[in-house]
Amino acid sequence: MILSLILIFTFLVAISMPIAFALGISVSVILLIYTDIPLVAIPHKMVNGIDSYVFLAIPLFLLAGRLMNAGGITDRLFKFARIWVGNIYGGLAHANVVASMLFAWMSGSAVATIGGLGEIEVKAMKENGYDVPFAASVATAASILGPIIPPSIPMIIYAAMTEESVGKLFLGGIFPGLLMGLSLMILIYFFARKRGYPRDRRTSIKEKAVATKDAVIPLLMPVIMLGGIGAGIFTPTEAAAVAAAYALIISMCVYKTLKLKDLPKIFTESMVTTAVVTFIISMTSSFSFLLSVENAGTELAAAVIGFTKNKYIVLLLINILLLVFGALMEAGVVLILFIPILYPLATSIGIDPVHFGVIMCANLMIGVATPPVGMCLFVMSHISKLKMETLMRAILPFLVPIILCLLLITYWSDIVMFLPNLIMD
Question: Exposed (0-12), middle (13-18) or buried (19+): which is 285, by Cβ within 10 Å?
């Protein structure tokens, strides 16, 4: 039955049917043919699947990201990053990575990160002598950090489906995200030296102080969010509301770059994106229900454990599986589909659920920048006016250090678990 389900779903996706409809139709067909479960179970599971307080954080973080883009906060972050790291070889490319890391603290989305910073970064690098494929690749690779460094929409989805702590997952993503950003900067440095890319002049302490002063208000947002979560002042969902309110206030009242007339468009775009994401999640709930009825996760766990009980080999197999599917399907869909299958397997061999959640999110975020269907590749292709095949070739070297970091956090759990254990245990 599960094989038939996967084959029907794969066929529908292959003929370009939207993911949500492909999920619904494949589940409906299987219920009709193989089970006595009435079709009314599907809408029931769709409603129950999104009936979670944690999911309220998704539209709020999406709204916060759009408010920051419209309010010019992204420009300030990029200028701040350029002032501090622009004098290193390949300075603008380093600024690109640092700005993406800073924006990641606020948005929770790879697409929001590349949408907010991509055009600014590529334009600046092109004007300063960098070739466009390199500039676009740096921006695309750096966007991966968006959902790994907290807040993270994929981590929220994982927490809601597994009932794990969102706060622990957020804290667990900090060091892996910083490690991936550093690895990208090391690669950029060697590329810059080899190709003779320019660097900015050395800036004075006064210039650094001015840039920091301009950016300090936006930079307080992640401090407030993570500090509030860690101290138990508010939940991650409430932190999302705080982030959206903070972005609105500083954009309208402090910087005065956002006007009242801009809000309807921002709210509408946020609602449309939320509706799409929520519809996919709700439809996937019926898919997950069918998997649970058939005990797919338990059977997979038993089969794998029958093959090997070595958790390091199992983790390697899971990484390969997620990297392959992440490159072929939308990351959020893969996450939702595989949680009911892989979560029981991971916990059965003694992998910490928080550690495994960060591994899953990191895996699938690599997929957003991996050919052939990485979402951020399509966004950047549109922004940079590059052909997709050109961008796909250019991005490949940047995936190497990120995948090496993925293996490091997979097999050295302390990178993930140090902060959650220190702050929340």
Answer: buried
